[in-house]
Amino acid sequence: MARPDRGTREWFKRENVALTEHLKAVNSFSAAVRSFEKLIDLGATGDTEVREALHTSGVINYARPFSAKPPFAKKIIRHHAKYDEAIHKQLVELRNKLIAHSDRDYADARIFKKFLSLRQGSKHIKALVGAALLTQTVHLLDDIQLADRYLTHVRAAEGAAAANLQTRFEEFAKAAQQFPGALNAATPKPTSPLQISEPVELNQPRPLALLNPHAILSKPPLKIGQDGYGYRGLSMHIDLSTEVTWTADDGSDVAVSWGAIKAPPSR
User: Fold this and answer.
1) pLDDT given at position 192
2) Which residues in the chain come in under a pLDDT of 70?
3) What pLDDT sits at residue 153?
4) Helix or strand or coil: residue 257?
């Protein structure tokens, strides 16, 4: 399927979805970074249940973007100098075969039978006298050096994904300034879940107004305890340089300039 031309209605519709999904991926990688950082801080002697939870959180948050539909494109991060393909595969495999789903290779379970064996002359008697049911699965990560490899890789994924998103978002903003009609035609109606946001109008040029995701975005539709949870948020802002000119009532020319300010992702 041919990619839509830049600045067309179809291009903006595709970018609306792609950019928001990309931001979710960066947010997920960021959460994985913090989990592995805390795991390393605790060390091999820290509380075992906390270490297990941090390992699970790190694995899930890293692998989540690659499990989405469509999945996050690995090509965006694989060229980072500290990207580790073996670590990537292991984290995704841990998510798929241990945490999110059960795989026999990762959770061995067997029944062992205990027999009493007696011999007297030519006679051999064998009687079942007991049985044992055993299971073993990955519980926590004791190897802090491996945890450090996880962290190095996940940081690389976060950095590469955020840099790529910054570039793509800037291109989106520049195209939106250049093709306002197509942008407006591609903007979903307010009832659509793809609605980006309400317009932000400023009467006077001033430094970039940072929007707080916790103040303007909807919470998930939890049936119980919605306000009892804390929510993780991430935002990225782009300002564009522009100049607006018009002729005043007295015939004089008036111009207002707006200087571009870049802001890195904020939580």
Assistant:
1) 44
2) 1, 189-210, 257-267
3) 98
4) strand
Q: Which amino acid is it at 243? A: E
Q: What is the DSSP string of 175-193?
A: HHHH-HHHHHHHSPPTTST
Q: Are 57 and 151 in contact (CB under 8 A)?
A: no
User: What count of other Cβ atoms lies within 10 Å of the Cβ of residue 217?
Assistant: 12
| Residue 113 φ/ψ, nearest 5 degrees | -110, 140
> Could you tell me the residue ranges of all domains in the chain?
1-102+142-188, 107-137, 197-218+232-267
Instruction: Using CA atoms of 188, 190, 196, 200 in order, give the dihedral in degrees to the nearest 10.
Output: 120
| Neighbour-count burial of 141, counting CB atoms closer than 10 A to its CB (0-12 exposed, 13-18 middle, 19+ buried) | buried
Give the CA dihedral 27, 30, 35, 40, nearest 10 degrees: 180
CB atoms inside a 10 Å sphere around CB 24: 15
Q: Give the pLDDT of residue 206.
A: 47
Q: Rounded CA gap, 101 and 75, in Å? A: 26
Cβ 116 vs Cβ 90: under 8 Å: no
Q: How far is CA 62 from CA 1, 103, 156, 220, in A?
A: 29, 19, 11, 21
Residue 261's pLDDT is 54
Rounded to an integer, what distance in angstroms lies between the CA atom of residue 205 and that of residue 257? 8
Q: What pLDDT is attached to residue 194?
A: 42
Question: Using CA atoms, how far apart are residues 255 and 199, in angstroms rounded to an integer?
Answer: 23
* 8 Å CB contact between 30 and 64: no
Phi, psi of 248, deg, nearest 5: -75, 170
Contact indicator for 59, 91 with CB cutoff of 8 Å? yes
Q: 247, 254, 215: which is closest to 233 by C-alpha?
A: 215
